[in-house]
Write a structure and sequence with these properties.
The chain has about 450 residues and is an alpha/beta fold. It is about 45% helix and about 15% strand. A 5-stranded parallel β-sheet has the order 3-2-1-8-9. The protein has a 4-stranded antiparallel β-sheet with strand order 4-5-6-7, covered by helices on one side. Strands 11-10-12 form a 3-stranded mixed β-sheet, with helices on one face. A hairpin with a 2-residue loop joins β10 and β11. The two termini are about 50 Å apart.
Length: about 450
């Protein structure tokens, strides 16, 4: 299984979390069903956006990338996302990419153009088969950018000539760097050691041109079709009417969401929707999933040996429903529903004095297949105090409007002492817990 990774020029956001939670659960289910999965993922660690962002921060692209990759792993680990077996970086695989480009040129599928190298789309009759587009249809409205040396408007770059001040590598075509699409083909073929992969994953925004171009260059390089047996594309997370995107700037970082909602709530938010569908960010929905995670967590503590009459909660129907849902194109929304129904039966059984030990074991097993820990997270400890915290924040806002700064600062200081940090933003005052302190006792 090859999954397209991030381009690290900003912190990872909830759109990234959505994709990697989905592929984490797909891997968990395949392994549970007995498949041996080798999971490979890339980092696009050289890119126009990285170069521009590094320049704006006054650091080298390498230093920018190193810090953001480190934060990526912190974020994904906190979400309980299993690490891929192999992570590779584009800049570490330049020789393999150069060799692949040379082979494509030798086979007549690519051509050199004054320091650039382009893939010749007309050399592949099936170009467009993934996105169900025709070459004639793509050409309508297409235009050549200033300075491009393509022979056809849809030809795409395999190698780009270096611009002044940019990082570069030596190649038979001069100094430059690979085109964006090259890395995934090269690395997938190298690390999965097969000309036909079982699964290739990524967001729906990658279908064209990225995955379309991967197919073209990979199948023309190996001479083997298909490059991929099963393409799996997740829907995109939306903030308002647009997809959540670093380039657009409308994003909620994983770090911020974890601080506010916790990992189990974020996973439930993602998995309660069908993975191919778009998912609209909603604070209300995430808060509801936070409460849902607490219900599952509480049910997992309702252990009872029973009243001695032999009656116990029967978990097997719920287990069967869960697994049938996951077998049906990874229908996590139905699997989550089965999980909550089992939790409800555990609660009823506990109140009735029935045995719940076996049902709780099943609940934990199935929750684990969705990557849920059912462990109390730091913010959960603050939920009971949340209304009081919000009241104090509201009071502080009124004091600030009245220019009573000393009293407003006093509230901030007292909340800090109790382990609650305030952050004044354009959207109002937000609060988060400080994990090193115990939860506040405001009762």
């Amino acid at each position: 299984m090859y999954v397209c990774g991030v381009t690290p020029y900003e912190d990872s956001h909830l759109g990234h979390a959505m994709s990697y939670i989905i592929f984490d659960v797909i891997r968990r289910h395949l392994e549970f069903r007995g498949y041996r999965v080798k999971h490979v993922q890339n980092f696009t660690d050289i890119d126009d956006k990285i170069i521009l962002r590094a320049a704006s921060h006054g650091v080298s692209p390498q230093n920018l990338v190193e810090g953001l990759i480190a934060q990526y792993f912190i974020d994904m680990d906190a979400l309980n996302i299993q690490r891929a077996h192999v992570y590779h970086r584009a800049t570490q695989e330049i020789p393999e990419m150069i060799q692949m480009i040379k082979t494509l040129i030798d086979k007549g599928h690519a051509y050199q153009a004054n320091g650039d190298v382009y893939f010749r789309v007309e050399s592949m009759p099936e170009y467009g088969k993934l996105s169900n587009r025709t070459l004639d249809g793509m050409v309508v409205g297409a235009r050549l950018e200033v300075g491009e040396k393509k022979k056809h408007p849809m030809d795409f770059a395999l190698w780009k000539e270096a611009k002044a001040g940019e990082p570069y590598w030596d190649s038979p075509w001069g100094k430059g760097r690979p085109g964006w699409h090259m890395e995934c083909s090269t690395m997938a073929l190298k690390y999965l050691e097969t000309d036909t992969l079982d699964i290739h994953g990524g967001g729906q925004d990658l279908i064209f041109p990225h995955h379309e171009n991967e197919i073209a260059q990979s199948e023309c390089f190996t001479g083997v079709t298909p490059f991929i047996q099963y393409w799996i594309h997740n829907g995109l997370m939306q903030l308002g009417e647009e997809k959540m995107s670093k380039s657009v700037g409308n994003l909620i970082t994983v770090k911020a969401a974890l601080s506010r909602y916790g990992a189990d709530a974020i996973r439930l938010f993602v998995l309660s929707s069908y993975y191919r569908s778009p998912l609209k960010y909603s604070e209300d929905s995430l808060s509801a999933m936070q409460r849902g995670a607490a219900r599952l967590r509480n049910a997992a503590r309702m252990e009872s040996p029973g009243a001695g009459d032999g009656t116990s909660v029967e978990p097997e129907p719920y287990r069967q429903r869960f697994l049938e849902s996951m077998d049906d194109d990874f229908n996590t929304s139905q699997a989550v529903a089965a999980l909550f129904d089992l939790a409800r039966e555990i609660n009823k059984g506990y109140e009735a004095g029935a045995g719940t030990t076996g049902a709780i074991k099943t609940l934990r097993e199935l929750a684990g297949l969705l990557g849920l820990t059912l462990e109390e997270e730091a913010r959960e400890k603050y939920l009971a105090a949340e209304p009081f915290i919000n009241l104090l924040i509201s009071t502080r806002d009124e004091l600030r409007e009245a220019k009573q700064w000393d009293l407003a600062d006093k509230i901030r200081e007292e909340l800090e002492r109790l382990g609650v940090a305030l952050e004044d933003t354009s959207k109002g005052t937000l609060w988060k817990h400080k994990e090193e302190n115990p939860p506040p006792d405001l009762a």
